[in-house]
Amino acid sequence: HEVFEERVVRAPEAVALVFEGEEVSYGGLNARANRLARYLCAEGVGSGEIVGVHLSRSPEMVVALLAVLKAGAGYTVLDPAFPKARLERVMREAKVRTLVTDADLSPVLESPDTRQVLVDTDAAAIARQEATDPGITVTTEDVACVMFTSGSSGVPKGVVTAHRGLVGTFLGQDYLDFGADQVWLQCSPVSWDAFALELFGALLFGGRCVLQPGQRPRFDAIADLVVEHGVTDLQMSAGLFNVMLDERPEVFDVVRTAMTAGEAASVAHVARALVEHPGVRIVNGYGPAENMGFTTTYEIEALMEDRPSVPIGRPVKGSGTYVLDGRLRPVPVGVPGELYIGGATLALGYLNRADLTGERFVPNPFGGSGERMYRTGDLARWTSSGDLEYVGRVDDQVKVRGFRVEPGEVEVVLTSL
To answer: Which residues face 379 on adjacent strands?
Structure first.
């Protein structure tokens, strides 16, 4: 949020958000977030707390996220499209004592253990707060957000990301053209780590973020918004990339960078996109939520349709990748091994799961004292050119339209019926 505040000072009148015909400036967004942050502080929110944000995709949701960070707390996004039982479990796991929501959604997650701040009902009281930055000090190791992913034991697990992880994903990176002239589309589900890239990839650099109405990516809505607003950066799951190329190819003549991630990219579609739309930059990315956003990227400049897969590339700045055998020894080029990730953007671990954190976040024998690396469960191999290729999984985790799904969680639900 401090990086965002610096952008506000540079260009307060620049447009930060676009939503259904509404434009919100950087100065206006910051003022609204500051007022809500001060209101949250008056309600007792402070450092170390995890605040739930239960709002539909909108400027109000972005205001709430920034306000929570400015109040010194961390946020967890509660997607209104998710089942009530799952959201209630997430709230219990995160020990959410404060929930930012609105009057329409308020009844869904009412609880005697949680106080609700309603951004519409409490609007007058929030508006009476000062609009200046609260100036609450946080450290790089303080929690910024908690993202819940599918759990193999049947319980969603919360990935705890510090401020250093969130900021390090963007600042000083060159895998994308971050800048004030970029227009991003935020269309990924708000519970997905891709959400952070689409939102903060704009707001930390003075760019413009267009918010897609609704909670799920909608193919035609995405294409229409890209054309209408001149979106320059578009992130898509591999499946959405394929459909977009087949059904709305004009999108690739508008965007400057098309990113595909979340699942294995289609060699045939990527190769065709390069031929039919030579002006677009295509980047294939890889990265689990445990390392916030992209861990590796591969800029595709040429691709033969007969090759077996699209590489996932090389680690971004601040990340380290290791392909190891069962004894944590590097494997030779071309030999599959398990992929491990280290670096500054690594998550702190899993919320309230010391056992699982210890199992997946292990000491890094290739790093300095106290450094850790994350055991991804993904199989990969190095190519002779120094790029990584994804091979598969060591377990039965699957991806469905970019979402991680642990069959164990499904089994627990089915056997409880």
So the answer is: 338, 392
Q: How far apart are CA 360 and CA 295, in angstroms?
A: 16
Q: Name residue, tokens 């071309």.
A: 334
Token representation of residue 14: 């620049």
Residue 322: pLDDT band (50, 70, 90) is: very high
For 135-155, give the DSSP string: -----TTSEEEEEEE--TTSS
Q: What are the distances in angstroms from CA 15 to CA 21, 121, 180? A: 12, 26, 10
| C-alpha pair distances (Å), 21 with each of 18, 24, 58, 194 | 7, 10, 12, 24
Structure tokens at 277: 């739309």
CA distance 21 to 3: 27
Distance CA 278, CA 7 (A): 33
pLDDT in tens, 365-414: 998 899 999 999 999 999 999 999 999 988 777 767 666 677 777 877 78
Token look-up 């199989």 returns: 379
Q: How many CA atoms lie within 13 A of 276 on its CB side?
A: 15
Summarize pLDDT for 57-102 with one digit per residue, the tens.
999 999 999 999 999 999 999 999 999 999 999 999 999 999 999 9
Report phi then psi at 240, rounded to 5.
-70, -40
The model's pTM: 0.93
DSSP for 332-366 reads PTT--EEEEEEETT---EETT-HHHHHHHEEE-TT
Tell me if 255 sits within 8 A of 232, measured CB to CB: yes
The 10s digit of each residue's pLDDT in 24-34 is 999 999 999 99
